[in-house]
Design a protein that fits this description.
Blueprint: H1 2-12, H2 15-38, H3 52-55, H4 63-66, H5 69-89, H6 93-99, H7 103-136, H8 150-181, H9 184-205, H10 214-222, H11 232-256
Length: about 260
C-alpha cells in the first residue's frame, strides 16, 4: 500500500498535470472571491442580499472559496477519474499489479494519494481566496477585524474542512466512474453529466430530493449547511455514507474484474 501511495505521486507531480490543475483551482478561487465581493449591494444566485456587514462576519473570509465549491468539486472529480481511468487507457495497470498483486492494497494506496492531492488542491484555492479577500475588503467597505479573531480562525478552519469533505465526495463519484467505465473520457463525461445536469434537474423538479441526492449533499457540506433545508449533520452523515458506498463498490469491481490492459 505504501509503495502504491508513493508511486501514485509520480504522475500527480508531473509539471504539466500539476500546474494545469493548480492553475484551474486558482482561477476558480479568484473568480469566486471577486464575484462575492463585487456582489455587495446586490443579491446572490439564490436571491439573498450580499452586504458588507455580512461579509464582515467571522465566516466572511471563507465565503469566496465556498462560492465556487461546486467548481472545486468538479476539478476533484475530473482529476481522480482521469488518473484512475488513465491507468487502463495507458496500459500501466497490469504493470502495477505485477509489482503489487494485492488489488485492494494497490487501490487503497492510490486512493489515499489522490485524497491528499484533492486536499492540496482545496488548500491552494482557499489560500488564494483568503489573500484576495483581504485585498478586496477595503474596496467594498468590508471590515476584516472579525476575520483575524479567534472566531474568524475557527470559521476559516471549519470552512476549509467542509470544502475538503465536499470535494472528496465529488472525488468518490470520479472513483466509481473510473473503475466501472475504465476510459478517462467516458468516466469524466458520465460522472459530470450525472453530477451536474441530472441531479440539478431532479432537484429542481422535486426539491426534497436535494436532501438525498449524493452530489447535492456534497455541495451542502461544502457550504457548511447554508444552502438548503437539510440540516448540516444529516447532510454530513448521508454524504459520508454515500462516499463510503461508492468507494466500496469501486473496490469490489476492481478486485473481481479481469484486467485486460
Amino acid at each position: 500500500m505504501i509503495n502504491a501511495f508513493r508511486a501514485e505521486w509520480v504522475p500527480l507531480l508531473r509539471s504539466r498535470f500539476l500546474l494545469g490543475t493548480l492553475g484551474a483551482v486558482v482561477g476558480c478561487a479568484v473568480l469566486g472571491t471577486m464575484l462575492t465581493f463585487f456582489a455587495v449591494g446586490h443579491t446572490d444566485f439564490d436571491g439573498v442580499p450580499v452586504t458588507a456587514r455580512g461579509l464582515s462576519q467571522p465566516n466572511g473570509l471563507i465565503q469566496g472559496a465556498q462560492a465556487v465549491g461546486i467548481l472545486l468539486g468538479v476539478v476533484a472529480l475530473s482529476v481522480v477519474a482521469a488518473v484512475l481511468a488513465g491507468d487502463h487507457g495507458h496500459g500501466t495497470l497490469r504493470n502495477q499489479l505485477v509489482a503489487q498483486p494485492h488489488r485492494a492494497r494497490l487501490l487503497a494506496g492510490k486512493l489515499l494519494a489522490l485524497a491528499l492531492f484533492v486536499i492540496l488542491v482545496v488548500a491552494v484555492a482557499t489560500v488564494t481566496s483568503v489573500a484576495l479577500s483581504f485585498l478586496l475588503a477595503p474596496l467594498k467597505g468590508v471590515s476584516t477585524a472579525a476575520w483575524t479573531s479567534a472566531a474568524g480562525a475557527a470559521a476559516l478552519g471549519a470552512g476549509f474542512l467542509n470544502l475538503c469533505l465536499g470535494s472528496l465526495g465529488y472525488a468518490a463519484v470520479g472513483v466509481l466512474a473510473a473503475i466501472v467505465l475504465r476510459g478517462p473520457a467516458s468516466a469524466i463525461a458520465v460522472a459530470l453529466a450525472y453530477a451536474l445536469p441530472v441531479e440539478m434537474l431532479i432537484s429542481r423538479i422535486y426539491r426534497p430530493a436535494r436532501g438525498w441526492l449524493p452530489v447535492q449533499l456534497m455541495q451542502e457540506i461544502s457550504n457548511g449547511g447554508s444552502s438548503y433545508a437539510t440540516p448540516y449533520a444529516e447532510a454530513l452523515l448521508r454524504g459520508l455514507l454515500y462516499g463510503a458506498a461508492m468507494v466500496l463498490i469501486a473496490m469490489v469491481f476492481f478486485r473481481r474484474r479481469d484486467m485486460t490492459s
